[in-house]
Amino acid sequence: MPATFRSALAKVTPKGEEFSGIIAYASFINHCVEACGIERIRKLSNRIELLDPFSEERDAFATTILGGSQQLSFDGEGRVMLPEALIEVAGITEMAVFIGKGETFEIWEPRAFAEYAARARELAREKRLRLRGEGGAS
Asked: H/E element holding 33?
């Protein structure tokens, strides 16, 4: 785990204990592992709790994000061991790349990320005016 990611993730839990690690789950947007700190997963949990408790939407989010998440602590060297199921989801074999995305980051198989990044760059190029507030949302 890159040091810059580790330092941003260390937080105190509601019980007053320091949690030094990540929460990881299979991304339901991309073919990768999505991960975040404990504070981000709390925010997601709170948002899910605001949904109708009997709705399929709430159940789907709770199952996918909360039910599929794994709390992974850093070892003495700052590493985490991804569970085999998450490694398989992302198709990671020998190498992985870490991609920061604000409060979350993704762990990708390098070639899969290169292909995705090329498509994302093209979409961003097409939609670049939206960042300036022109041609749509501001």
From this structure: strand 33-36
